[in-house]
Design brief:
The chain is of the alpha/beta class. It contains six helices and 22 strands. It starts with a helix and ends in a 39-residue tail after the last strand. The structure holds zinc ion. Zinc ion binds next to strand 2 and helix 5.
Amino acid sequence: MRTSWLAGALLLLPSVAAAEQKAAAPGAEAPPVVLGWHSESISAGRPGTMLQIIPPVAEQVIAAPGGPPTIVFMNKGGVTLTPGTNDARTNRSTIVGQTSTIPPFEGSAAEWSAIMQCVRTIFAPYNMTITDVDPGNVPHFESVMGGRAQQAGMEQGVLGVSPFTTNCSLIPNSIVFTFTQSTRDAYGTTAGLPEELCEIAAQEIAHSFGLDHEYLASDPMTYLNFNGLKTFQNVDAQCGEYSPRTCGLPGTGIVCSQRQNSVTMLTQRIGVGDTLAPSVSITSPSNGAVVPTAFTVATTASDNIAVSKVELYVDGVLVDTKTAAPYSFELSGLATGGHSIQAKASDGANATETTINVTVQAGAPPPNPNPVPDEDPDSENPDTDGDGNSDTITGGCQT
Ligand SMILES: [Zn+2]
């Protein structure tokens, strides 16, 4: 039987209720306002995730095209949180009713690597940087990955939790939780556990962007089983856990929308990622040139948004990096004989490289610094579709 949101609101945890009644000490932040909790799966007797209902947050962020990416900090190192308005920079959270410590991620380095890769895959289409290095005092979201629900003052069986506003709005600098040890307790240490943890984390992160549960098995916002990795679907889906409903707070009269499209909402709130790789070419020397022991390597690079750096490699070893044009590199002291010269341009999300071979010969004339442009400067990465970008992308997040 489905528990209504009003009934869910009665499930206030004692610790939270106590925090709300307690007057703030002088100088301390006022206790966070919590309207209630919502969980379908716990009331149905199975492990699942919860939503903590909070009032709308005034400060809203509208993603600007080409603007800075939204940062999500995947915290595997443990954290001590104090009650307060959600802020990943100060470790304050509405979720905890008292100072609470979540221990570090208990799993292996290989599991962690798989989780990071999976979360990056799910959010790859969006303008988001997902890191496991604490960004410090800059705006960011935080996904705490560790411990058990009880360590955050929640009942056993909760695998993940996020705050969620009554108007389905974004919660800047929100802290969400995936209780990795609770999930391991529930499912066991299996090959599929990193994907399970990744999908829970993706759902909790997206809750803080204002996404409700979807009655669509292939989307990370679902409670339903799906065979394969859940990814955000460009589908106008019904909301709901184990049965369809409107999106928002059913039972309270509050409806955010009739249906929800995960891709549309994420695109509006965090923007699309950069999927076009930069182009790069070595304009001098030419491929196969005979050069003296000291010479200049001239390269050009461009990107639909911005080139963040051009790196120069000699025989596979990084020798210099330029972060602004002109991307010219002075080389000297190379041994006589053949060498490979590689230029690699990055836009921060994607990278493209090109390689030439030269022969160093003492006393050879220096290469022409302004040769006639090569008709096909980047034969390794041809631009067959004529969009000005190489079709072959090295690295980055093209899927
Ligand atoms: Zn959820």
